[in-house]
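FIELD: query
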Amino acid sequence: MSGKTVVREVKVEEAVGLPLAHDLTQIVPGEFKGRLFKKGHVIREEDIPALLRIGKEHVYVLHLAEDDLHEDDAALRMAKAAAGTNVRLTEPSEGKVMLKAAVPGLAKIAKSFVDEVNAIESIALATLPDNTPVRPDQSLAGTRAIPLFVPASTVERVERLAERWSEANGGERPIRVKPYRRLRVGVVTTGGEVYKGLVEDKFGPVVKAKVEQFGSTVIGQRICPDDTERIVEAIRHFVDEGADMILVTGGMSVDPDDRTPGAIRAAGARVVSQGTPMLPGSMLMVAYLGEIPVLGLPGSVMHDKYTAFDVLLPRICAGETIERSDITAMGYGGLFAGRA
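FIELD: result
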């Protein structure tokens, strides 16, 4: 209809035969929260007890103006504007649309776009942080209109923001999933105590499990004493074997016997950073031999659940090159000691 949107409040007993203006939610504490009646449901006599049980003595009847959008339509249009590669949308429910991962990979969320959208009145866009590893069907973001209806011009602003972001970023959209590549990973384990068989290697199984979590494969493991030449030889072996990534475990502290950082340099690698501003994992080293990432992993990777390695590994598996600025950014929010 033209003119102004009209929202009319009607007693439930008088609403038989009228369509609901929005989804109605039922909450059973500790058991259920979800949609009881869908938008557009025509109220029947037998629905009245259920409506009263969820505290609804009145319902809304809505007559939309041509230049207004129902909350469901607004949420769906915003979601379509934001969604990029490997993202699927849910149908509107309770005024929300969820953007979900279609494949395993790295969530790429443009914070600048999210901030601009949320500066607009009457709408909301909630997302995961950028670079969060996600599995298929995991929620990436949710859109919603706060009131029952919003001006179409509000949603058009979001669509223009998404279009501008896309034009500036090679045609991509602000919310997408970057799939993992299947990397072939070589592991070099250092330490005289492990090499001599005095201590069982605990690093290899931990690293293997983390690598396989992102669809990659450990193609081999070489155990070396704390000897620079032997470690360099092992690194070059995996280069010759066609490894896509090389992980050198142990030997990353300041002890005189710890030779890993020097060996990575001696192998000819370009060092991005020796150390990160994150705890645990501050002694981790990132370097590149040509395009092959070579990481020196400190002992914390072996015994702490979440370290700097867990931040960088999914990004590398998604084909991203780690720069010094990426390391610098790890400090804010990078204190994980004692956190689950």
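FIELD: remark
The mean pLDDT is 93.
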